[in-house]
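Researcher: I'd like a structural prediction for the single chain below. Treat it as a standalone chain; there are no partners to consider.
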Amino acid sequence: MRINTSDLTLQRNYLEKYQFLMKEYELVKKGGHPLYKYAKDFYQANDTCAKSFLKYYNRFKQSGQSIDLIPQKRGPRYKTRRPLPFIEQKVIELRERGNNRYEIVNILKPTLHKFTPSPSGVYNICKRRGLNRFKKAQEQNRRKIIKERMGELGHIDTHYLSRSIIKGKSQKLFIVCVLDDHSRLAWAELTTDVKALSVMFATLKCLNMLHDRYQIKFEELLTDNGPEFGTRISKQKQGHPFERMLMEMQIKHRYTRPYRPQTNGKVERFWRTLEEDLLRETYFDSVEELRDELLQYIYYYNHERAHQGIDGKKPVEMIKVLPN
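Model: Treating it as a single chain, here is the predicted structure.
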């Protein structure tokens, strides 16, 4: 085997240079260097990048091997950034069904965990395949439901009502809604605040009503990142009312991407419909009247109102057997 003498010379020069620099650097750190008081003066005088020097210095200190002072060859970075083929295929399949990059990340995360591509990674995959812009067929798929059965995913959100919603009073009132992704069946409860305990009890009522009336038992619930819905920090979940309720009910908690309300778009659309049909430019004589009107509207929404997102069906028509 022929040895390249130029490579050996280059390696020897690297070793001599870094061995000298390390001795100088350690003198500076100990405050005993005759010329340099600060490390930045040392880097500048030796025309050395602090980041690069410290990388090799720390690597050598950990291993004690002189070879670690020599720059290592690496392959092109773009090759290491490509996802595995089966992950890329999953992204393509979900994109062709009309999902955007944030929805794709949320769908893949429960199964792929740390291997889930980021939203920008999903975009790059779609761009390489010419799928970064929706075609007409994809726009139609986008309007279709994503989940295939009731209870697979529920959407939860809170809605702030106008302070003048009750005639002659200025009162804070809120609505908590739980909506089934597949059927669009919904239930909503009125609350006087959005503290964690209040939202937990309102959500529990909604879950019980959807289960008793429509036999929906949720596997996962999707919320935004509001404090009333809990925290992503696992150590704090036990002490949070909403998180603890989901743990006791064995329901997985999913979160929307911060500042991305589109991820919870179905319940956001419910709020718009509720405002247009019931609340906008309307006031009620009492909280009891508002609660009664809300109950009547929920029945109308579930049993009589057709939804474009489910091909013009009524939510109640999405279940096979109607409750007695």
